[in-house]
Amino acid sequence: MTMAAAADPTSLDDAVIAQAETALDTIGRARVAIHSVIFGQESVVDLSLITLLSGGHGLLVGVPGLAKTKLVETLGTVLGLDARRVQFTPDLMPSDILGTEVLDEGADRRRSFRFIKGPIFAQLLMADEINRASPRTQSALLQAMQEHHVSVAGDRHDLPRPFHVLATQNPIEQEGTYPLPEAQLDRFLLQIDVGFPDRVAERRILIETTGAAETRPAAVMSTDALLNIQRLVRRLPVGESVVDAILDLVRSARPEEGGSEVAGKLLWGPGPRASQSLMLAVRARALIEGRLAPSVDDVVALAEPVLKHRMALTFAARADGETVSGIVERLAARVGRRTG
């Protein structure tokens, strides 16, 4: 991977440039390691990496059998993270995720409470089929995602660093599910739609996953390396044209400010957290692609995964065949033309 020129190289010192060069090499090797076991999902892999390099959480939406679980396991191995998986079910309780206190009795017969950590105390947690759990359990997880700690019996317990959640959702089978509230969906940096692989990729899957030997990914990063890259992402410069493009895009997706493009079509639009998410994500995307600063093209490319889960259509818009994806695509294209 080669380093492209930064939009404003004077804003970066030599130490940051050297750190970026090292990061690019590490990210390149991580992508190769992930693609050695995940076939035909280049966009999904890159968006997942963008989520983690930005320090955020991701929502993977796709039907069963598209290697979402394998992707999370592979990311944990390659990035050197302690990864765990929780299968969400209707009877799952908050304590099953967060942990609980148990009463211990010592040799002197004194009793005391001891906290037993739940699976959320991992660096990478896969929340499988998150919409199958009750709202109470969903809320407990999503609150911890935002606050990076849990409170049990009045005591605070900090989560590991880094801490990321990659949740999955099946978009087809909705019977017996509890859809995530829109305000809680905002906790996810990106919504990553996982589609079917093309014919070439599916052929490779058939050949390479049904034999006697199984390819296993190798660890490429350490926890410290990932944290260093996350800090680097926040230091990358963002030009005024990119900042304006982010503001124009996010504000145009709000019913109150969007004009004729969204008039009467949206119940609500993205808040400032969407702008923050986009600001981080475009930097991470630039770094993954070998650049020191993001461009307006990054804003356009990430518009849908950042905004899609933060908007809702009116009944009339749905009846007219409108989709959130379609509206975001038109708004992003308009921003691209305006700054192009």
Features of this protein?
340 residues, 2 domains, two-stranded antiparallel ribbon, alpha/beta, 15% strand, Helicase, Ruva Protein, domain 3, five-stranded parallel β-sheet, globular, disordered N terminus, Rossmann fold
Per-chain topology:
Layout: H1 14-35, H2 42-53, E1 58-61, H3 68-78, E2 83-87, H4 94-98, E3 99-105, E4 111-117, E5 124-128, H5 135-147, E6 149-152, E7 155-158, E8 164-169, H6 182-185, E9 190-193, H7 199-208, H8 223-235, H9 240-252, E10 266-268, H10 272-288, H11 296-307, E11 312-313, H12 315-319, H13 324-339
Parallel strand pairs: 1-8, 1-9, 2-5, 5-8
Antiparallel strand pairs: 3-4, 6-7, 10-11
Helix pairs in contact: 1-8, 2-10, 9-10, 9-11, 9-13, 10-11, 11-13
Describe the structure.
By secondary structure, this protein is an alpha/beta fold. The protein has two domains: 1-237, P-loop containing nucleotide triphosphate hydrolases (Rossmann fold, 3-Layer(aba) Sandwich); 238-340, Orthogonal Bundle (Helicase, Ruva Protein, domain 3), CATH 1.10.8.80. The chain contains 13 helices and eleven strands. The strands form four sheets. The chain has a five-stranded parallel β-sheet. β3 and β4 (111-117) form a beta hairpin. The longest helix has 22 residues, at 14-35. 41% of the residues are buried.
Give the biggest sheet: 5 strands, parallel
Query: Which of globular, elongated, flat, extended, rod-shaped describes the shape?
Result: globular
Number of domains: 2
Could you tell me the mean pLDDT? 85
SSE pattern, N- to C-terminal:
HHEHEHEEEHEEEHEHHHEHHEHH
| Cα end-to-end separation | 26 Å
Q: How many helices?
A: 13
The computed structural class is alpha/beta
Q: So, CATH architecture of the largest domain? A: 3-Layer(aba) Sandwich
CATH class annotation of the largest domain:
Alpha Beta
Q: What's the arrangement of strands in the largest beta sheet?
A: 2-5-8-1-9
